[in-house]
Specification:
This protein has 131 residues and is mainly α. The protein is built from 7 helices and no strands. The chain is globular, with a radius of gyration of 15 Å. Pfam families: DUF7945.
């Protein structure tokens, strides 16, 4: 089977990319967070989202661009994911790893996590190349 020249570049770890996409979706959905994370119910929880995005990828140590083409198709995707990790780390660094979920959601910088995750999800979930 031949790939069309304009076909989307494939990543080497599609299952791990799916975890990253799930993390971004949860981190960018305030309604989901209010319904599930405040009550302590729902999957993925905040811990899983952080784990998939940071602990499993090591973006915080190596940078997202180091994961092209393993997880990200190009620099635009990597840069968007990096912005989410940076925003999330600002909140995590401020509150520490053991604060209750609602403390993260109520942090003044959480809005940056929401916006960055939504922007990243739009870029990463696109199946078409941007022209």
């Amino acid at each position: 089977m031949n790939e069309h020249p304009s076909a989307v570049r494939r990543v080497q770890r599609p299952e791990q990319r799916e975890d990253v996409l799930n993390a971004l979706q949860a981190l960018g959905d305030r309604d989901y967070q209010e319904r599930h994370w405040r009550s302590g119910h729902g999957w993925p929880d905040l811990t899983a989202a952080v784990h998939w995005l940071i602990d499993d990828t090591f973006i915080d140590q190596a940078g997202a661009r180091a994961l092209i083409p393993q997880l990200f198709r190009d620099e635009q995707e990597a840069d968007r994911a990096q912005l989410v990790v940076d925003a999330l780390l600002r909140v995590l660094d401020d509150l520490g790893p053991t604060a209750p979920d609602h403390a993260y959601l109520d942090h003044p910088a959480w809005i940056s996590v929401l916006h960055a995750a939504n922007a990243a999800l739009q870029v990463l979930s696109s199946d078409k190349e941007n022209s």
